Amino acid sequence: MKIMAIDYGDARTGIAISDATCTIVGATTVIHSRNREKTAQSIRELIAHHDVGTLVMGFPRNMDGSEGPRAELYRAFAAYLEEVTAMPVRLWDERRTTVEAHQILSDHNYHGKKRKNTVDAVAASLILEGYLDYARLHRD
User: Fold this and answer.
1) Which end of the chain has the lower number of beta carbons within 10 A, N or C?
2) In Å, how far are 12, 13, 120, 123, 124 from 117, measured between CA atoms?
3) Cβ–Cβ under 8 Å, residues 75 and 91
4) For 50-98, what is each residue's pLDDT tens digit?
């Protein structure tokens, strides 16, 4: 079963889904919604469509490792998502993923609206890549 990474946001939520072997990012998308119920329902539909078995959600931490100001909001959404999907949600440190996503897009000349519509999917891909690397290291 595949692994889904979620870069939760107020207006856009980035999604990255592994390939069937859980070794690389296979698909990405962005859910455009300010409504947590609609966002969770869209995630639930993607889980079913892509045969996802593991959920990993980016979690905001400060550079010193302490929890960021939005941590409680993310914990609440993760709990709601667990309720809606009947799957556990693993919170994953997302420090610097958005910064790195913006840098990647700048390096490839994505600017303005084009960047705004892509950055969350790229950030989700970075979360997924980090989790896949972790899983590989701890599987061997």
Assistant:
1) C
2) 8, 10, 7, 12, 13
3) yes
4) 999 999 999 988 778 888 778 999 999 999 999 999 999 999 987 667 7
Q: Give the integer Cα–Cα distance in Å for 132 and 5.
A: 10
Cα 140–chain centre separation: 25
In this prediction, residue 29 carries a pLDDT of 95
SS3 of the chain: the string is: CEEEEEECCCCEEEEEEECCCCCCEEEEEEEECCCHHHHHHHHHHHHHHHCEEEEEEEECECCCCCECCCHHHHHHHHHHHHHHHCCCEEEEECCCHHHHHHHHHHHCCCCHHHHHCCHHHHHHHHHHHHHHHHHHHHHC
* pLDDT at res. 114: 63
d(CA 40, CA 136): 28
Give 18's strand partners: 25
Which structure tokens are listed for 122?
């790229």
In the prediction, which pLDDT does 113 show? 66
pTM for the model: 0.87
